[in-house]
Amino acid sequence: TPAPAPTEQPGGTPATPAPAPTEQPGGTPATPTPAPAGTSTSSAAGPSANVTPLTPTQPAETPDNQKEDQQRPEGTGTAESTGQPVETGNWRLPEEAGEQVLPVFLDNERLTVSGEPVATGNVQEMKDTSTVLKLKDGAVIVTVACAEQKITAGVADTVAVANAVLTPEQMELVNSGETIEVRIDVKDISGKVPQQDKRVIENGIDEYKKEVPELTLGMYVDISMFMKIGGGSWNAVTATDEPIEVVVGIPEELQIEGREFYIVRAHDGEYTLLRDTDDASDTITVSTNLFSCYAIAYVETGETGVGAGHKCGLCHICPTFLGICYFIWLLIVVLLALIICFSVRRRKGREEKIS
Q1: What is the dihedral of CA 168, 171, 173, 179, to 10 degrees?
Q2: Which of 284, 290, 286, 285 is nearest to 271 (CA)?
Q3: How buried is residue 241: exposed, middle or buried, by Cβ count under 10 Å (0-12/13-18/19+)?
Q4: Averaged pLDDT, groups of 10, the chain, 355 residues long
Q5: For position 271, what pLDDT does the model report?
């Protein structure tokens, strides 16, 4: 059947003719289905892709499933074309999910908050913890996820994480009402550590034994970061412009009295020794801007003197000798000196009486 001739709109401009319907097998014309009201489309998913917004109970894509497939530069936040509908818009309702919400402000292209820094994660017996940084109608959701219960982790300053990851353009997106998610995944990979990273960390431990004698490998940990804008795909973030403080809980099997812990990082074939900056015996806090393979290492400080030169667990200021605080040794020396002086004076007194 010939297509109808184009009709003219008012003003003499010919209207664009509608495309003729295609036929299905059997000769029945296919009727195009209109998109439901309120849905949106994404060019990354192809022309006219119908999109159904997610509800808070529907699972989103997990970064672990896409980690090996992501090849884009970090921080792009671009939706990957997977042939599946890509959710868009601010579909997540953080308040209903029970996450802590922190009002923030945009000042000179940086997020700021009144009061002390707010940590996210490192909560015992919780797999995922999140903090929502609320900026007008937009938000930055920072989540710390631990794949196994024996691993706990967190970030000391949630706002600092957002400032380290987001670009000024992405800050403006949030200020305009967009939601951006930042996710940090921490998991034990001791049984499946990549061979290249394993060699780098083992070489690093051997090298750092010159500085820290008897440095011993404890376990391998993967610390990865991902980001997505709105309903786009997760993109790996392997580096940030500014370092952030990551807190890693020490598994119970490694928590033995007299141990001092370190982190050895492998990134792009290079190793780095990171020292613990907190005083807690069950956590390690390090400042890092690279996210890849890490290892928890330790030295036995005990009574063997191996840890001589490291801070003691009593005052956290001085080094130790034979596992004993220097202030204790100083007190012992002073007491011995007083005893000697008292004995000498007493002996001289006796001699004077005899003479």
Answers
A1: 150
A2: 290
A3: exposed
A4: 47 46 44 41 34 34 43 32 31 52 91 89 67 92 83 91 95 95 92 92 93 92 95 94 92 88 94 91 92 94 48 56 70 89 82 72
A5: 94
CA distances from 303 to 306, 310, 329, 344 (A): 8, 13, 14, 34
Which amino acid, residue 60?
A: A
3-state SS string for the chain: CCCCCCCECCCCCECCCCCCCCECCCCCECCCCCCCCCCCCCHHHCCCCCCCCCCCCCCCCCHHHHCCCCCCCCCCCCCCCCCCCCCCCCCCCCCCCCCEEEECEEECCEEECCCCCCCEECCCCCCEEEEEEEECCEEEEEEEEECCCCCCEEECCHHHHHHHHCCHHHHHHHHCCCEEEEEEEEEECCCCCCHHHHHHHHHHHHHHCCCCCCCEEEEEEEEEEEEEECCCCCEEECEEEEEEEEEEECCHHHCCCCEEEEEEEEECCEEEEEECCCCCCCEEEEEEEECCEEEEEEEECCCCCCCCCCECCCCCCCEEECCEEHHHHHHHHHHHHHHHHHHHHHHHHHHHHHC
Q: What six digits make up the tokens of 38?
A: 């309120």
Tell me how far CA of residue 232 lies from CA of 55, 80, 167, 345, in angstroms: 15, 7, 17, 85
Please name the residue that has the structure tokens 């890490």: 294
pLDDT in the model for residue 349: 76
Output the pLDDT for position 195. 93
pLDDT number for residue 319: 59
- Residue 175's pLDDT is what? 94
Q: How far from 226 is each of 9, 55, 61, 72, 76, CA to CA, in Å? A: 51, 21, 12, 12, 11
What is the residue-averaged pLDDT of the chain?
73
Q: What is the pLDDT of residue 347?
A: 81
